[in-house]
Design a protein that fits this description.
By secondary structure, this protein is of the alpha+beta class. About 60% of the residues lie in helices and about 10% in strands. It contains 9 helices and 6 strands; from the N terminus they run H-E-E-E-E-E-E-H-H-H-H-H-H-H-H. The protein has helices at about 5-20, 75-80, 85-95, 100-110, 130-155, 165-190, 210-240, 245-275, 280-295; strands at about 30, 30-35, 40, 45-50, 65-70, 70-75. A 4-stranded antiparallel sheet has the order 1-6-5-4. Strands 2-3 form a two-stranded antiparallel sheet. A hairpin with a 5-residue loop joins strand 2 (about 30-35) and strand 3 (about 40). The longest helix has about 30 residues, at about 245-275. It is elongated. The termini are far apart.
């Protein structure tokens, strides 16, 4: 005849699989006498009812009895869903190795989400000083673009007749405007507000009695590019001071390298124009720019 223990054991194992996913490590197993007076150890089971802590029946349940086939075990509060004291919760975290609890940690973020339709939901770790610095750089890019557009209009005149230089400045103007738009998109991405500022009216006459219009204009452009680079470095410093690595990476990847290359190119143009003088050499310089534009 089979003993009570051999009859109950399969049912205990099946119930344990349902409750704890084949893991009895965190269950406190109690002994129960079978019909013959012998004791045996049971596992988890399915039927659950609360039990009181020792010493008082008025206190909150510390766990739950799990009964199946005459076997009584005690499940931990973490498994049954009951509230855990602070010390027990820490012990449970140490046992399970859980270091991130998304549903508890997300509560702080939910409290910070604004319910107002006029405020950004995407903004995070983006300080007002970063927002203001980006708006200032947008204004810098638009001002430089405006000057380059004026240079395009000057060199495109029929009595100036340097279409290569004119096209170079038109492309440069478009590039600066695209950079301003890139900054505007980034401002919106981080949850900031774009605030466009006034643009100064540029000069429209660029002839110079000693240097000529081409050399004078290129030297002006070199100065503007260096000023723009200084502004970008200041913007990068704001990001560093505000501990905003994402903004720092954005400025480095989208602007700083390109700015250094532009300064190098304009510096070469200034050196070449200083060599050729104001006359016939400027015409050949213009042809060179036309060939570069055609090849691009």
């Amino acid at each position: 005849m089979q003993t009570m223990q051999s009859m109950v054991a399969p049912r205990v194992a099946a119930a344990a699989h349902l409750v704890s996913g084949n893991s009895l490590a965190s269950m406190s197993v109690y002994k129960q006498l079978d019909g013959s007076g012998r004791s045996f150890q049971g596992g988890s089971a399915v039927l659950v009812r609360p039990i009181a802590t020792s010493g008082s029946h008025s206190r909150k349940p510390a766990g739950k009895q799990i009964i199946s086939a005459g076997v009584i075990v005690r499940a931990s509060a973490a498994q049954t869903g009951a509230p855990q004291p602070a010390g027990e919760a820490a012990d449970s975290k140490a046992r399970t190795g859980v270091v991130f609890e998304p549903f508890s940690e997300v509560q702080n973020q939910l409290m910070q989400v604004s319910s107002a339709y006029t405020e950004s939901l995407a903004r995070q770790h983006f300080l007002p000083s970063s927002e203001a610095a980006i708006n200032d750089q947008i204004n810098v890019e638009y001002n430089v673009s405006y000057v380059y557009h004026a240079l395009f209009a000057y060199f495109d005149r029929d009595n100036v007749g340097l279409p290569g230089i004119a096209e170079y400045f038109r492309d440069a103007s478009d590039e600066k405007r695209e950079r301003a738009e890139t900054l505007m998109r980034y401002q919106n991405k981080r949850g900031g507000r774009v605030k466009l500022q006034s643009i100064m009216m540029p000069l429209m006459e660029f002839d110079h009695p000693e240097k000529g219009d081409a050399l004078y204009s290129m030297e002006l452009v070199l100065g503007l590019e260096k000023v723009t680079n200084e502004k970008l470095l200041s913007l990068h410093q704001v990001a560093a001071d505000n501990n905003d690595p994402e903004m720092s990476h954005f400025i480095e990847a989208k602007f700083l390298t390109d700015q250094v290359e532009t300064i190098k190119q304009v510096s070469q143009y200034v050196s070449q124009l200083r060599r050729v003088g104001k006359g016939h050499g400027v015409y050949h310089f213009d042809l060179q720019l036309q060939e570069e534009e055609f090849s691009d």
